């Protein structure tokens, strides 16, 4: 079975790279699934979105993302996020606190994205 090469990158670090069987991402046009052989694509990531990667080997990767782009060329998927964090790096109580803030919009959005990733991961 064919695989896709995936890179999940934020402005400040490489989040994850490897081979996967499928990638799903929330874009401004809706949720999209990328399988090997997908047509070329450039999509804008949804603010407060979630990206899910099913690696060929290992556990499913779930990340909260804040803005950015998704590019598909051949069997390579590159996810360039303005900000991203893996669901297992999220402190749920801190994310809940941030999500309920009214005075700091960016922290609120990131908290909401983190909570969405944690929920999808089932943590």
Automatic annotation (TrEMBL):
Keyword Hydrolase among UniProt keywords: no
Gene3D superfamilies: F0F1 ATP synthase delta/epsilon subunit, N-terminal
Membrane topology, from the record: Peripheral membrane protein
Keywords for the protein's UniProt record, in alphabetical order: ATP synthesis, Cell membrane, CF(1), Hydrogen ion transport, Ion transport, Membrane, Transport
A single cellular component GO annotation: plasma membrane
SUPFAM superfamilies named among the record's database cross-references: Epsilon subunit of F1F0-ATP synthase N-terminal domain
UniProt cross-references to CDD domains, sorted A to Z: F1-ATPase_delta
Pfam families: ATP-synt_DE_N
InterPro entries to which the protein is assigned, alphabetical: ATP_synth_F1_dsu/esu, ATP_synth_F1_dsu/esu_N, ATPsynth_dsu/esu_N
Compartments, as annotated in UniProt: Cell membrane
GO molecular function: ATP binding; proton-transporting ATP synthase activity, rotational mechanism
Main function: Produces ATP from ADP in the presence of a proton gradient across the membrane.
Binding partners and assembly: F-type ATPases have 2 components, CF(1) - the catalytic core - and CF(0) - the membrane proton channel. CF(1) has five subunits: alpha(3), beta(3), gamma(1), delta(1), epsilon(1). CF(0) has three main subunits: a, b and c.
Family: Belongs to the ATPase epsilon chain family.
NCBIfam families noted in UniProt: ATP_synt_epsi, PRK00571.2-5, PRK13442.1
Cited HAMAP family: ATP_synth_epsil_bac
The protein, known as: ATP synthase epsilon chain
């Amino acid at each position: 079975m064919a695989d896709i090469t995936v890179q999940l990158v934020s402005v400040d670090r490489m989040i994850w790279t490897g081979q996967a069987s499928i990638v799903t991402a929330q874009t401004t046009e809706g949720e999209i699934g990328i399988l090997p052989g997908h047509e070329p694509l450039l999509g804008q990531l949804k603010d407060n979105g979630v990206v899910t990667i099913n690696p060929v080997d290992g556990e499913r990767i779930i990340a909260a993302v804040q803005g950015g782009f998704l590019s598909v060329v051949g069997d390579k998927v590159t996810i360039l996020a303005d900000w991203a964090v893996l669901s297992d790096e999220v402190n749920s109580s801190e994310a809940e606190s941030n999500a309920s803030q009214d005075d700091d919009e960016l922290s609120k959005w990131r908290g909401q994205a983190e909570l969405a990733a944690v929920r999808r991961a089932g943590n």
